């Protein structure tokens, strides 16, 4: 795989403190710089900037993928297989309300992957996925 190249994503939130707890405490993201209007996180090696801007939050639409309704607007991370399962267990223990429960998508097909979807406190949809075979990430 190519050399890791981190991305930056800015997204709207309602509240700094609930966002800090969700991304920092629950997901284990290191907290970077912050003010009363925004907060940065190390999101599995990528830079997320959460900005207090409730008027920018919108109900996402969904498309059907593998028989499930996937929120069109979402972001997340691709984790190593064991780390994905650890996160899924932690989220279940913390009673996260999943949009799509953790499961194996495209089982036995090209692109087979573990996936799960849930919302952050502001209603932003997150997807975490994993591939036992990383060469399948971009497989056709």
Tell me what you see in this structure.
- This protein has 140 residues and is an alpha+beta fold.
- The chain has one domain (8-53, 72-136): 2,3-Dihydroxybiphenyl 1,2-Dioxygenase, domain 1 (Roll).
- 17% of the residues lie in helices and 41% in strands.
- It is built from 2 helices and 10 strands, in the order βαββββββαβββ.
- It has helices spanning 16-26, 81-93; strands spanning 8-13, 30-34, 38-43, 46-52, 62-65, 68-71, 74-78, 98-105, 113-119, 125-130.
- The strands form 3 sheets. It has a 4-stranded mixed sheet with strand order 1-4-3-2, covered by helices on one side.
- The longest helix is centred in the middle third of the chain and has 13 residues, at 81-93.
- The model has no long low-confidence stretch (mean pLDDT 92).
Helix content: 10-25%
Distance between the termini: 16 Å
Give me the count of strands: 10
**Strand count, sense and closure of the main sheet?**
4 strands, mixed
Question: What would CATH call the class?
Answer: Alpha Beta
Strand-pairing-aware structural class: alpha+beta
Strand % is: 35-45%
Residue runs with pLDDT of under 50 for 5 or more positions: none
Number of helices: 2
Keyword list:
140 residues, alpha+beta, 2,3-Dihydroxybiphenyl 1,2-Dioxygenase, domain 1, four-stranded mixed beta sheet, 2 helices, globular
